[in-house]
UniProtKB/TrEMBL annotation:
SUPFAM superfamilies xrefs: Winged helix' DNA-binding domain
Name the UniProt record assigns to this protein: Winged helix-turn-helix transcriptional regulator
Pfam family, one: HxlR
Superkingdom of origin: Bacteria
InterPro entries: HTH_HxlR, WH-like_DNA-bd_sf, WH_DNA-bd_sf
UniProt organism field: Bradyrhizobium symbiodeficiens
Record-linked Gene3D superfamilies: Winged helix-like DNA-binding domain superfamily/Winged helix DNA-binding domain (1.10.10.10)
Length: 121
């Protein structure tokens, strides 16, 4: 990630600003979920896949590689993945957003409720 920002080429941004690189990485499918699941303790690939609702092993490994290259995740001696100090710091920064989301929890809009009701029939 740092290499992307330094080179000026960040997916979805012409500026190459570090915040854009971070948001791009965190916005990729499963990235935040992986970090969230690792916030408590290291997990093996299999345990992480189970925690991530059986995410595709290919996608999961791609995200783990990206998160490792970014310095947020590391492969431990026992073979499990865990957060680095930087990864723990990032998770601490996300916690206020999680608390806000828990308070916010909107009920689905009438338009979305109708769609959900049609699916359940």
């Amino acid at each position: 990630m740092a290499r992307q920002a330094a080179s000026g080429s960040v997916r979805g941004s012409r500026s190459g600003r570090p915040v854009m690189a971070l948001l791009d990485l965190l916005g990729r499918r499963w990235s935040l979920r992986i970090l969230w699941e690792l916030r408590g303790e290291p997990l093996t690939s299999r345990a992480l896949r189970t925690a991530c609702d059986e995410a595709s092993p290919t996608v999961l490994q791609a995200r783990l590689t990206e998160l490792r290259e970014a310095g947020f995740v590391e492969l431990g001696e026992g073979g499990g993945y865990g957060l680095t100090a930087l990864g723990r710091e990032l998770c601490e920064m996300v916690m206020p957003l999680n608390r806000f989301a828990e308070r916010w929890k909107p009920s689905p809009s009438p338009r979305l409720r109708g769609r959900d009701e049609r699916r359940s029939r």
